[in-house]
Amino acid sequence: MSYLIELRHFKYFLAVAEELHYRKAAEKLNISQPGLSRQIKQMEEILEVDLFVRSKRKVTLTAAGEYLKGEVEFILNHLEVTKKQLKYVSQGDFGEVRIGFLGSAMQELIPKLLINLKDKFPGIRTSLEEVSNNAQINALLKDRLDMGFVRLSRVPDGFNIKPVYEDTFSVVLPEQYPLSSQNFKDVSQLSKENFILFSQDYSPLYYDTIMSICEDAGFTPKVSHKSVHAHTIFKLVENNLGVAIVPTSLQYGFQMKVKFIELKNIPQKAVLSMVWKEDNRNPALRHCVNLLLDEASNAN
């Protein structure tokens, strides 16, 4: 074959794979539809596989196409990251670390990390994105993030996961609720209430842990509302629409008419872990990981 695979082929393929429509993909790329079709056909000839199944009504990916889509997303993301890192390195910086996190990590862990980085490695830049556990794992797989802060018990092969912060849980009640720290005995006193929880999709481990806390107290909670934001949960509690159980550290930074009662005598803890891919070659990432591991070691 006289022609070889080129970067443009990957970009054209990804556009069609995302749109699953040649005309829309061509408009997105600002090229003609026949020209795009020729490029995809050429790519299939070079690779000697069919990437799409075409019919008059729709375009779908083959198994090979699905696999290539994930690889191309990683390749193109990594190229963009490499270009950005090159600029930072040329300016004498270490580079950038892209961090994903759950909201509770912003209460103490991430601010402390940013302060330590600024003090010890001022040449490291950071970018932050608040996203769910699963979204962080997907972003790490596709090289859109370097590290994440998650509440997960397991991660895919090729990942490292290390607990870095352990928190207690607290119940969240409306300000005028008759229970207080003095007369609160256990969660069973709330068995008749509606519960407001973080969504199971947002944090499966958290959701399962709250269920186990209630089941240990002898009841299954009635879940009336779910959210991915602590502010929303607290607002619902404030308006007497239910009660909640959250990591204790989430009580800070919110000025709302709710009160917190710490659950001190239960075995369950809210464990926050950092996660990163073993083969991540970002030199700035190692400094972040070491800082957190040292911090966690000193805390124990």
TrEMBL record:
Record-linked InterPro entries: LysR_HTH_N (IPR000847), LysR_subst-bd (IPR005119), WH-like_DNA-bd_sf (IPR036388), WH_DNA-bd_sf (IPR036390)
GO cellular component entries: protein-DNA complex
Keyword GTP-binding applies: no
Gene3D superfamilies (UniProt xref): Periplasmic binding protein-like II (3.40.190.10), Winged helix-like DNA-binding domain superfamily/Winged helix DNA-binding domain (1.10.10.10)
Keywords attached to this entry: DNA-binding, Transcription, Transcription regulation
GO molecular function: DNA binding; DNA-binding transcription factor activity
Entry-linked PROSITE patterns: HTH_LYSR
Superkingdom of origin: Bacteria
Annotated ranges, domain HTH lysR-type: 5-62
Similarity annotation: Belongs to the LysR transcriptional regulatory family.
Protein name as catalogued: LysR family transcriptional regulator
Organism whose genome encodes this protein: Arenibacter certesii
